[in-house]
Amino acid sequence: MNFKKKGIFSRSVRSEEPATEEELQGGILAVWGSPGSGKTVTAVKIAKYLADKKKNVVLLLCDMTAPMLPCICPPSEIESEHSLGSVLAATHVTEPLIKHNLVTLKKNSYLTILGMKKGENEYTYPPYSEVQAKELLCELRKVASFIVVDCSSYIASDILSALALMESDSVLRLANADLKSISYLSSQLTLLRDSKWDADKQYKVSANVKPQQAQDQTVHALGSAAFILNHSQELEQQYLAGNLLVDLSLKDSRQFRKEIEKIVKEVF
Ligand SMILES: Nc1ncnc2c1ncn2[C@@H]1O[C@H](COP(=O)(O)OP(=O)(O)OP(=O)(O)O)[C@@H](O)[C@H]1O
Ligand SMILES: [Mg+2]
After folding, report:
1. What is the position in ligand 1's atom list of the atom closest to the CA of 231?
2. Is the whole-model pTM more than 0.85?
């Protein structure tokens, strides 16, 4: 066929992203839930999804007992390593201080991470208070449009995770269909009942659902869930290898990948 180069009609230029992704508003998403439910893997995959769509995203890792940075990517992929501890140790948390302490990655310029370094714990730095935690969350909004917070489960003792639940625009509440998750939630939700916690912004997620766990069994244990994240062997392997920023490409991850996409479109 012979197309005229300078016709009267302009060729439609297809945008790189579907319209729905252009419309993402951004904000702070806190990923929280029962211990070992999959908070970290879910937070990382959401952050990675957004960064792949060329959205600037900060992944805030609250765990000070087991710093998660070494579990997310190999040290060789980190361009510059800093610590969340240095940010919270300041009298006041400012935007330049946060920017200075972001962990940057060699292969992904849209994703930056703020977390504790390998070998550190909460006693490595002076204690911080609600003031620094609140300032951090507030200033992070200026640093990037998308903030994903990997909370720890222990909100009674972890000020940053507790504040993230209060200050975030939405919360994913993860649970596995087991007795420990149910016990955890009935214990911790009472803590939130008296605070400024807006229960309407939370989405229940049934996480790491294994094939033998029929969906109705999960629903029976946890009540209805807005999202269901199936178990993926490939994801488990990535976790064991400390390489969570690699794409999930196998068939067994398909449901998980699709659900992450659905979550992003719903919560942002
Ligand atoms: N969808 C999934 N598919 C496969 N494995 C999963 C999935 N979700 C969680 N896991 C596995 O469950 C374990 C715990 O995951 P993860 O560390 O993300 O949980 P967590 O809630 O952050 O734990 P913690 O309370 O210790 O912070 C890991 O071995 C991880 O690979
Ligand atoms: Mg975790």
Report:
1. 3
2. yes
Cα 11 from chain centre: 39
Supply the residue whose CA is at minimum distance from atom 31 of ligand 1: 236
Residue 223 lies in a domain: yes
Residue 3 lies in a domain: no
Taking the CA of residue 174 as reference, the ligand 1 atom at the shortest distance is 21
94/92 Cα distance (integer angstroms): 6
**Strand 111-114 to strand 57-61: parallel, antiparallel, or no bridges (unpaired)?**
parallel
Q: 24 in a domain, yes or no?
A: no
Dihedral pair phi/psi, residue 167, rounded to 5°: -90, -15
Give the pLDDT confidence of 223-264 residue by residue, as tens digits: 889 999 999 999 999 999 999 999 999 999 999 999 999 999
The reply to whether ligand 1 has any atom less than 6 angstroms from the CB of 63 is yes
What residue owns the CA closest to ligand 1's atom 10? 38
Q: What is the CATH number of the domain that holds 243?
A: 3.40.50.300
pLDDT tens per residue across span 85-139:
999 999 999 999 999 999 999 999 999 999 999 999 999 999 999 999 999 999 9
Domain count of the fold of the chain: 1
Is the distance from the beta carbon of residue 231 to the nearest atom of ligand 1 less than 6 Å? yes
Cα–ligand 1 centroid distance for 86 (angstroms): 27
Beta bridge partners of 114: 60
- Rounded to whole angstroms, the maximal C-alpha distance in the chain is 71
